[in-house]
Design a protein that fits this description.
Elements: H1 2-11, H2 13-22, H3 35-50, H4 55-69, H5 74-87
Length: about 90
Amino acid sequence: MLSEIVRGVAAHAKEIDARISACLAPGWTLRRIPRVDRCALRIAVFEIDYGEAPDAVAVAEAVQLVSELSTDDSPAFVNGVLRAIAASKVG
């Protein structure tokens, strides 16, 4: 499963990064986001767009990950970005 996610994120990197970038505030870029947050966002977007788990599960797992490993502001930030991405999902 983990290797499938890693391969999937790599295969769809441009699309995933574009989805994340589209939900960032003006003037913000992916490089401004802490590395842990970027990785969690990329994995969650892959799961939302290409995976089989419910979107809410992907969001919750990413928020939990950054809660444990990143900044105090990261959970709210990641939650907001992923909710916007899930809401804009086509199909």
